[in-house]
């Protein structure tokens, strides 16, 4: 009988008829088994097996109860980034902590800049959205807001109608930049992309006029203030822009800086991953950290302690949890997450 039923959709009513029970009893056998006897449930499941009935449609069930019990995480990176990057892993773990405690699942939505990004958002059945750090002009922000579901952005940008969880990137960059650039004559920055085009380049700070990623923009503003207070004009600060938060790319671009006619004697990196690449580049040309080149990172990841990096400490796990709670409809206690400076041996006294 299962083979003849395979050409058409078997209904719960047909299962109930074959089992000799009411449709409500058949429904309870799947959705509320504690409300039916073991004998009745056994009859329903046996009938379902004979008819080839796989169970209630999950999407229909979600519509009935008005909830999918799933959060959507919009990640503006390749899907593997969520599992490869230490800070992304930490952030996702924070979301998972909250989801596990509430009986929710997670759907990761990688955004690549393709035409299908917006439909991927609007067609996804989730109860709320968390948007990983993105740019001011990212169309997925309007798509998320248009769903009218609870949503929060991590890191920025700030969008009307959406929550925001972030540290004060300007203040943190100013604080760590002051340590990086102390006593330096040729300070430099190795940083994140300026726009969604993700173009790697080496330029001067003053030549950068349009930055659509708020996190990059605010950190550059903090570094600028630190450099100027240390006596270096922003136009004399070299900024190396990386396409990704990647140690290997940071190492290559730092090697180019160190091979230039005026190599930097201080480099502030926007992540510990990038700083690790910078340290490798410095050591590969026979220079010492911090005597020849001071280096700072950001995040206080495990590699920062291993390399003795002065860095900005923040908890991406806590921020992920805060985002999840906000996406589940809880009011944000404060959009400003805590941070602190961890001073180690990679900067000069």
Kindly estimate the percentage of residues that lie in beta strands according to DSSP: 5-15%
CATH-defined fold name of the largest domain: Rossmann fold
Shape: elongated
CATH architecture of the largest domain: 3-Layer(aba) Sandwich
Which H/E pattern describes the elements?
HHHHHEHHEHEHEEHEEHEHEHEHEHE
Mean pLDDT: 92
Total count of strands = 12
The strand line-up of the biggest sheet is 2-1-3-4-5
Mind telling me the CATH superfamily name of the largest domain? Response regulator
CATH top level of the largest domain? Alpha Beta
Give the CA-CA distance, first to last residue.
81 Å
Determine the oligomeric state from the structure: single chain
Unreliable stretches, pLDDT < 50, 5 or more residues? 1-7
Can you walk through the features of this model?
With 349 residues, this protein is α/β, with parallel strands linked by helices. It has 3 domains: 2-56, 434 Repressor (Amino-terminal Domain) (Orthogonal Bundle); 67-165, Response regulator (Rossmann fold, 3-Layer(aba) Sandwich); 169-313, Response regulator (Rossmann fold, 3-Layer(aba) Sandwich), CATH 3.40.50. It contains 15 helices and 12 strands. The strands form 3 sheets. The chain has a 5-stranded parallel sheet with strand order 2-1-3-4-5, with helices on both faces. Helix 13 (272-284) links the parallel strand 9 (266-269) and strand 10 (294-296). The model is unreliable at 1-7 (pLDDT under 50).
């Amino acid at each position: 009988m299962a083979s003849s039923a395979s050409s058409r959709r078997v209904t719960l009513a047909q299962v109930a008829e074959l089992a000799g029970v009411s449709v409500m009893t058949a429904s309870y056998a799947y959705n509320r088994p504690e409300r039916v006897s073991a004998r009745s449930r056994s009859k329903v499941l046996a009938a379902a097996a004979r008819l080839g009935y796989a169970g209630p449609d999950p999407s229909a069930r979600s519509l009935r109860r008005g909830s999918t019990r799933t959060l959507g995480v919009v990640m503006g990176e390749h899907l593997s980034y969520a599992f490869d990057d230490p800070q992304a892993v930490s952030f996702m773990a924070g979301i998972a902590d909250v989801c596990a405690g509430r009986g929710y699942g997670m759907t990761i939505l990688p955004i690549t800049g393709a035409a299908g990004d917006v439909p991927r958002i609007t067609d996804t059945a989730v109860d709320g959205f968390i948007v990983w750090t993105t740019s001011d002009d990212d169309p997925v922000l309007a798509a998320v807001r248009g769903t009218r579901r609870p949503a929060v952005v991590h890191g920025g940008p700030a969008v009307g109608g959406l929550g925001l969880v972030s540290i004060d990137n300007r203040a943190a960059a100013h604080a760590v930049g002051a340590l990086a650039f102390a006593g330096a004559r040729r300070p430099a920055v190795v940083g994140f992309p300026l726009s969604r085009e993700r173009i790697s380049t080496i330029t001067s700070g003053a030549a950068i006029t349009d930055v659509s990623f708020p996190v990059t923009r605010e950190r550059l503003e903090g570094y600028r203030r630190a450099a100027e207070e240390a006596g270096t004009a922003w136009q004399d600060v070299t900024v190396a822009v990386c396409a990704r938060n990647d140690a290997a790319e940071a190492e290559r671009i730092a090697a180019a800086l160190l091979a230039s006619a005026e190599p930097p004697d201080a480099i502030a990196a926007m992540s510990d991953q990038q700083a690790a690449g910078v340290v490798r580049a410095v050591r590969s040309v026979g220079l010492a950290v911090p005597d020849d080149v001071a280096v700072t990172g950001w995040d206080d990841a495990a590699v920062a302690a291993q390399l003795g990096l002065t860095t900005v400490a923040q908890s991406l796990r806590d921020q992920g949890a805060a985002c999840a709670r906000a996406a589940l409809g809880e009011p944000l206690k404060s959009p400003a997450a805590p941070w602190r400076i961890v001073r180690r041996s990679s900067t000069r006294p």
